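#lab-general

N.A. 3:47 PM
ok so I finally got the sequence cleaned up, no stray characters, all 405 residues accounted for. can someone with queue access submit it? mine expired

B.Y. 3:52 PM
send it over

N.A. 3:53 PM
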Amino acid sequence: MNPTRVNLIPRRADVSPITYTLLIPSLLSLTHQAHAWEKPEAQRYDFSYQLYQESDERIRIESYYLRGDVDLDAETSFRFQYLRDAISGSSPSGAMPGGLQPFLADLEDVRYGIMGALSRQFGDHRVELELSRSSEEDYLSYGVALSDKWELNQKNTTLNYGMNFLNDDVTVYGLTDQDKKSYDLFAGVTQLIDKNTYVSLNFTLGFNNGYLNDPYKSIQRTDLLSVDDGMGGFIDIPVINMYAENRPDERMREVLQFQATHFFENLNGALDGVLRFSNDDFGVFSETLQVEWRQAVGEKFEVTPFVRYYHQSAADFFMNTLDGAVTGTPADYPDGSGPNYTADYRMSSFDALSLGLRTRYQITEAMAASFSYEHYEMSGSGGDAAPAEAYIKADIWTVGVNLSF
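B.Y. 4:20 PM
back already:
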C-alpha cells in the first residue's frame, strides 16, 4: 500500500468537505499475525454501503461500493472497484449568512466510478497499471496510474514509486466545457524494524492546471447603485451582488507522510500512527495526526477505535467578501488570472477532528462483516476563518461484507 497515492476515482470539489480535508487511507495492519483466518485467497470481494450525513440538513451522500481482487496466476492479479454516490442537500454558496443573498445552495447529483488495475510480479518488483473513469452530470474524469513496489533486503525493505494522471472535463454554465489536469509523482519506503514493527515514509509531488474554480461557489460584494433622486442629483443605494470565485489556474502540491505501526503480542493488538504535512502554492499548509488501535477480541472479532486531527492555514486569496478588495469589476467567467479570490470555507483556516470506531467479525472462513462509525467536526481558526455557520458536523456510517475464496 502507498499511503500518499491519489485515489483515481475523484469527487467533485463542492460535495464532500471531508474528502477535501482528511480521509487518509487505512493503515497496514500487523494483527494478521494473530489471526489464522487472514490468509491469502485467490479471490476477494467486498461490498459496502456508506452514509455520509452533515448536520442541519446539509450534504447527504449514500455510497455503494463493490471491490474485487482476483489472483489470475502466481504472478498476476487484477483488482477493480465500482461505486455509485447519490448526493443531495445544500452547501454554502459563498454569501454571508443573514443577508439577502441565500447562504446555502441546493444540489443533487449521482456519481458513477469504475477502476481496474492489473499487477504482475517481475522478480523483486510488483508493477501495477491502473485505469479509472468517474462521471457526474457536469463532471467527467479519466485516470491512469503506474506504480512499482520493489522488495529489498530479504523483503524487509520495500520501495514504492510511481505516477498518477487525471484528465477532467468540467461543465460550466455559460462556457464551453473546461479542462483540468492533475499530475502526481510519489515515492516511499517501508522498513521492517523487527517482526512486530515497521515504519514508512512517503512523499508526493503534485501539479494541477486548467479550470481549478468550483463553478458552484461565489463571493459577495457590496456595490453602489446610483438612482436619480428626481431633483437633478443621484442617490447611491448599496446592493449585494454575487460574483464567481477566481482561483489560480495552476497549483503545485507537496505531501510528506510518516507512518509507524507496532504489534503488541501480549495484548494481541496493534498501534498505528500517521503524521502528514501538506503544502501548496495557494498558501495552504496543513498538518494531520491520526492514531488508531487495532484490538483482536478472540479469534474472530477485531475492534479499532481511532482519532484524527487536522489543521490548515487559509489560502492566500481567501476572503469572506470582496468589500475593500482591489479587484475592479469581477469577470462573469474568471479564467484564473489575477486578482484571485474565493469565499469557499474549505480554503479558509480551520481545524477538524474525527473520532470513530471500526469493527470486523469473521463469520465463516470465507465471509466477514464490517461496521464503522465516524463523527467529524470542523471549526474556524484565527482571523482567516469563514463564518461559523459555514463549517460542518458530519456522521459517517459504513457497513460491509467481505468474501474470499
